[in-house]
Amino acid sequence: MSCLKIGLTGFHLSGTVTEPATSSEPEVTHKVAISFDRCKITSVTCGCGNKDIFYCAHVVALSLYRIRKPEQVKLRLPISETLFQMNRDQLQKLVQYLITAHHTEVLPTAQKLADEILSSNSEINQVHGAPDPTAGASIDDDNCWHLDEDQVREQVKQFLSQGGYYGSGKQLNSMFAKVREMLRMRDSNGARMLTLITEQFMADPRLSLWRQQGTGMTDKCRQLWDELGALWVCVVLNPHCKSEEKSSWLRQLKKWGEMDVCPLEDGNYGSELPNITNALPQSNLSQDSLARPRRTVFSRAVEACDLHWQDSHLQRIISSEHYMSPAYQREGESLLFNPQGLPLWLDHVPTACARVDALRSHGYSREALRLAVAIINTLRLQQQRQMDIYKHQKKDLLQKGVTSITNLEGWVGHPLDPIGCLFNTLTETCRVDDDSTMDTGEGEPRPPVYHHIPVWGSSDGGESYLTLALEVALMGMGQQRIMPEGLYAQDKVCRNEEQIVSKLQELELDNLLVQTLRKQTVQLLEAGPFSGLGEVIHRESVPMHTFAKYLFSALLSHDADLAYKVALRAMRLPVLESSASSGDVGHPHHGISIVPSRYPRWFTLGHLESQQCELASTMLTAAKGDMLRLRTVLEAIQKNIHSSSLIFKLAQDAFKIATPADNPSDITLLNVALELGLQVMRMTLSTLNWRRREMVRWLVTCATEVGMRALVSILQSWYTLFTPTEATSIVAATVMSHNTILRLSLDYPQREELASCARTLALQCAMKDPQNCALSALTLCEKDHIAFETAYQIVIDAASTGMTYSQLFTIARYMEHRGYPLRSFKLASLAMTHLNLAYNQDTHPAINDVLWACALSHSLGKNELAAIIPLVVKSVQCATVLSDILRRCTMTAPGLAGIPGRRNSGKLMSTDKAPLRQLLDATISAYINTTHSRLTHISPRHYGEFIEFLSKARETFLLAQDGHIQFAQFIDNLKQIYKGKKKLMMLVRERFG
């Protein structure tokens, strides 16, 4: 872009900006005018007509040109000064030339103004002097940037209408950042812009929709409302705002807060509706939530309007680093100073931190730092006193095993983010601004680099703002606090915790920081009920898994004992310990004596359990190879983790770490993996889990990796770990497979020992569940005669009661395949007694089994055939199946199986004699019955099919000696009974006479 014809008259810059031509667009020139005052742009106009909160490129180009090339911009006095130097003729000449140059635009205005000037009582003549747009503002005027209010409204409205998608959420956050920047520059537009944003937020049509439906808003949206509320707290806490400004903000905030659609502080509209779990008889929460005042996202800002900065102690804290108590005061107890004489600020912690945030936000960073240090001195003193109190109560508390909670309002997840505020204030001072740490926008932003800056007046020389930042983050994270109510508030605790941890991970731990870390960790372990890592905690306190995982990793290389101590202490999740009694929470709102029914209201329980699992996994990985540590971690897992799928995940993790691809396995960790796997098996045995098959297979793999003794052990104690089906079809089958024997390179006695265990298991399972395990048991016992006989006997005993025909047929076929035809015949006969095939079941899956059983009997000889035919006649009413059997039996002579000691006579069997006569009679009567059944409901489209069926019947009738006579009689009968079906009977006559 190029800038031309630039003029600077007083406080008014004007010029033309040319955009060069592109391949698709011609060259364009825009006229730009900018007014400014005390280094701030106060108004802009540009011919491009682009409307945005941010200035268009042409305004930026003109401004940069003026800044970078001041010598090329001719500077003139304000126009009023120039006019003052002209005489009457010159003034007349100027006006006439001006009108001539722009007569179409200016003439009407000039005429109107001339009329007013000539009229003695016009408004224009009541005012002394005339305006000068180039003269700048008076010294008393407000100091503020140009802000296009319509544009702000328009943009916020547009971003909100996009439903808080990633892009629009980012845009709104950048507008909030813009407000913070304005506050820091002490530009009075900051509050104005925030007001405009808030008006649009309150006008969001989704608010009333969410309220009507009682549904919560999206998380992205909630976070934007939170930021809005926090920003208002900053605005009203401006230490130098005028009281009338504060009063007008208070009115405005109250007005918004009273609107029905105003979002509530704890998250959702849902909390105004009775919660289903709140309605439980043993809970007094439902009445309680009605008694509590309605708190909206603006409530904290409204309360902050009552705060002032006039306190002389506060003024001294923020105005000097060297403020200390006089020496004579240090002897006694003082509420204003600690024993070292350093000032304290005893405000409610989140409120005190809101003051720090306000100071920082309004550009008073040194003052903010001083107040932050006073707050930390106060927290330290309180921590020390709390430890002293605990020492006196310790014995009593440990005996009871219950504690009350003193901190009802946790600092982590708090709407004002007190810990984040203190941490940022302190670390900002220590940040090294070196170009290499700048975010270049390429790839991952580099973590900030910090150095130690000593704190004035600290008793030990080794204290810096950086060690204070670490200390306060640890104090806040370690604070014992009640799990807040509602999904959003709980989710926020998790999110805030993760944010603080990620900031802590950016600190490179040197000796000074490690010292702070160790000292504070020890204090948290010994602080009793004031710490979430104390020995006894309340059943509903927020778990410390995420925090402890950070502490463990940070301490491990410096003090492993302390690292394990803190991680093991944090493994608990008391809300899931059904035996734990609920302690007194020391406040009517939380004084809930609850049967373990409250934790359904722990909406983030799944996330918390997975964090607990992460902590355990981190410890397992670190303890690899250390038998004692692994034992302790294993016990903690078994005691504290209640979810089988998470324990399974840990077992798999341990197995992976224990069996690296390129190194030998770590047997200590493998044993832990196996032990966890066994626990999962026991936990899910009766509650059958959908992942059971995968878990069982995995366990066998793990036991194989541990070795032969582990396999023997799981085979011997199978009934506490597996169902009979799993034990035979997966466990024993895998243990006996060729792969396992190769993997373990077993010698003959070892293989025999394993096989013997597998057979014992197989027989026990077959006894317990013959239906599902008999076949597996026979297969597993094949190589041992006695075991095989025992398994076969189990099947025979169970056949009459516990087994279905399909199971028996399957085993019978297996027996035939293994070369036991007589046993196979016996089982097939037993199966036949369980079967019943009706006349119309001619596609039943058991038909193949029946045909196979008859073929087997026929191949064994006349006696076996004679034994099975009565069973077939009794079980099968289906004519086509019976005629199929009959046809097959008359095609070859019986007894082809060649059983030693039996001779095949080679004669075909006659259908007139037993046993086939009985089968023939049954088949004929089945055809007769089926014919009558079919004719009662026959439709014309099935006539052709029916005639074919009768032809098949005739073939069977003709196998009897007097068959043709019987068939003729049968046909005559049909014609007589069904003479009403004329067309059908005509077809019968045509085919059969």
UniProtKB/TrEMBL annotation:
<feature type="domain" description="ZSWIM4-8 C-terminal">
    <location>
        <begin position="807"/>
        <end position="984"/>
    </location>
</feature>
<dbReference type="InterPro" id="IPR048370">
    <property type="entry name" value="ZSWIM4-8_C"/>
</dbReference>
<protein>
    <submittedName>
        <fullName>Zinc finger SWIM domain-containing protein 5</fullName>
    </submittedName>
</protein>
<dbReference type="Pfam" id="PF21055">
    <property type="entry name" value="ZSWIM4-8_C"/>
</dbReference>
<keyword id="KW-0479">Metal-binding</keyword>
<dbReference type="GO" id="GO:0008270">
    <property type="term" value="F:zinc ion binding"/>
</dbReference>
<keyword id="KW-0863">Zinc-finger</keyword>
<keyword id="KW-0862">Zinc</keyword>
<dbReference type="GO" id="GO:0031462">
    <property type="term" value="C:Cul2-RING ubiquitin ligase complex"/>
</dbReference>
